[in-house]
Amino acid sequence: MSEWIPSAHELERRELRRQQRLRRTLLATVVTVLVFGGLLAGVLASPGWPSVHALFFNGHHAHDSFHEVLKGFWINVKLFMLCEPCILASALGLALARTTRSPWLTPLRLVAVVYTDVVRGVPTILLVFLFAFGFPALRLQGIPNSALFWAGAALIVSYSAYVAEVFRAGIDSIHPSQVNSASALGLSRAQTMRFVVVPQAARRVVPPLLNDFVSLQKDTALVASVGVFDAVFSARDYGNYNFNYTPLVVVAGFFVVCTVPLARFCDWLQRRWLERERAGAL
Amino acid sequence: MTAPLLELADVRKSYGDKVVLADIDLTVDRHDVVCLIGSSGSGKSTLLRCLNLLEQIDDGVIRFDGEEISDPRVDPRGVRRRVGMVFQAYNLFPHLTVLDNCILAPMRVHGVTRSEAVQRARELLAQFGLSDQVDKHPDRLSGGQQQRAALVRALCTGPELLLLDEITAALDPELVGEVLTIVRDLAAAGTTMVLATHEMSFARDVATQVCFLDNGRILEQGPPSQLLVAPEQERTRQFLRRVLPPAG
Description:
heterodimer, B: 248 residues, six-stranded mixed beta sheet, 9 helices
């Protein structure tokens, strides 16, 4: 079998496929250049562009504010890196609480339902206000009383409700036959969840989870509203002193730089799962 | 003198280094019933999937109704409009009722009006003993019923060629009968079919031609009376000894 050489016909076909690919790539390039070039030209040609350019895209101010913004952004990064694991854990807990069947756990189930309904109904910024100003006023002992801590707690509380629904949708999407075959092997309900259902569900919901994570990253900017010196607050601070909004654009750049590699990583992860699990599937 | 409905010459398919089909030559005339037999992994399913362009072949030529369909310029959908396929795992759409499964392609691909599509689907479903299941969702049906529904779904578009990929492999013996009876009727009505099967007695009754695949090659082909009774190759004899019940 090693002595097989592609026939002339096959070679011709490969050449054809190559040409088809080339034509598609070419078309894609032309369309992309035209669309984005057109948009760019439209913006640059607009009458107000020079003043917008000076106010939002000023190289000097970008350079000047960079350090302050970076310092503030580090707070945002710490915040979402610490919040996200807590959110994932509590959201999964909430979702699992809703899928329990045991009569003993009925109160837990009710709490999960009410929690999701109520928390999702309250605007996140209000939760941040309530937590950051309300809890420190209680003067609780043994836990930090800083606005930053409680703003973070508010984000966890708020996002857990959303992410829980994402997990629940994932869990519901697993075909009952999977649960049946796990039960048939003698696994308990909890084991079935732990080893069969949740691993499959989690893979399915990676894109919406990423969605919520990116959303969380941006919502860490809400802590600026309770006086925490994060990236947005620093940028606004700088802008108010210097009458220039360029630092806000710098902040936007920071957030984008953070989310894009993450999105690519998730894409890569999903492709790998698909290749491994769906190879040659019908 | 018309061209054969389907013609394969020197077809080859590999996944990386693994050659799954090699030197496949096969001719299927109209009203032929070609049975592909061979052990699991011999390439039967891959061959069927190549025929309606679900897989890209690596060499050789596939002609359908005289036209080379392995040409990259050929629109696969044009071919699939004329070819029906039924899978081992039924692959019915679980979110649609049996009727909606059956009228999806006629309406969306073939531009048949809803009333016409429904009428034809109901006729076929009735013919296949599924009148009571029309408005149920597939998961509520038994395996045999699901597979019959899948057959109806494939037939609703009036395909010129029907590909059946081990459609009874997931069914218990009692249900195998009800599905095979239908395939027999289809064969008797002159439907051109290529099917992969493990049911040797069925192949003997229905096939006009049997191909024995081994390691991705057609080791032997001929009418069932010859291939299943007096095969030339030792490998074929070996396979048949294992799958055929001992004579007498």
